[in-house]
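seq as requested:
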Amino acid sequence: MNKEKLNSILQRFQTLEKQIADPDVIADTANWSKLCKEHTSLSPIAEKYGELCRAEKDIEAARELLSDPDVRDLAEEEINEKRKEIERLESELKILLLPKDPNDDKNVIIEIRGGAGGEEAALFGADLMRMYKMYADRVGYRWEDMSMNVTELGGVKEAVFMLSGDGVFGRLKYESGVHRVQRVPETETQGRIHTSTVTVAVLPEAEDVNVEILDKDVKIDTYRSGGAGGQHINKTDSAVRMTHLPTGIVVCCEDERSQMKNRDKAMKVLKARVYDYYNSIAEKEYSDKRKSQVGTGDRSERIRTYNFPQGRVTDHRIGLSLFNIEDFMNGDISEMLDALKIADITAKLSEAEE
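struct tokens:
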């Protein structure tokens, strides 16, 4: 264990505790909030390190009793128990000391696109969107539709939505990639199993401090949004198309009847995509060096197969198969997400020890 680093963290934590209780610091709301956030982030490490220090002191105290034959057995038992506790605490501290992904606490923008398989791919895209929505309901994330392109049968050619909540990106970032489905499509008349694919992209919401998009770099077009017509037909140019000229990234939004609302939503998506574009370039060298790319990998990579005839969901990155496909599609995906998180942490610990 790097005691020097842990002592430095503990000292910083104790300093922050005094600062956030200082009335003069509290008066500066912005700075106080920043200090509180840092205090909260260091709290688990400080608490765990405190437990480790107490366990080490307990061992020293027990060793002093080894010379007394009346309590020698009890002292040895105490030492053995505390050694096991120290081993556990050191393992937990190693995980806590791993560099955090600065995006983990951010909200996410999820994009779902039908791939190979035509209408069946679009229908499975709708199933995946429903799966994420049901998962969001389970854990208390807030859902906001950003953009939707649906087929006549209710499939999804492209869906963009935002999920807001504590640690949502850190939880769902492993979903980026190609999701493959094997099942008998609703449109199949002869009972044959088809294979289709859907691409999922999970992007951290980009705040103004993360990415700057200049007005001169964005071309904005407005047009009339499509629809079924009737009394809700759109008679104004409320739909918005934004093109980021330096990267060629295009975002369309026509869900809202207000052009201003569509502009706001389109800009959120554009910022997320531009941030992800530049961030992906910056991380490519690191990603190429990693032995286990569990996290935000190449989106052309097939990460998971949903085999309906066998009732099986298999994640190919970690080799995990779950035989609960019905529950899984109803939002019960926590076991898979937990396994991916553990695999990612294990890989990072392995790299840190090399």
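The CA atoms of residues 213 and 252 lie 17 Å apart.
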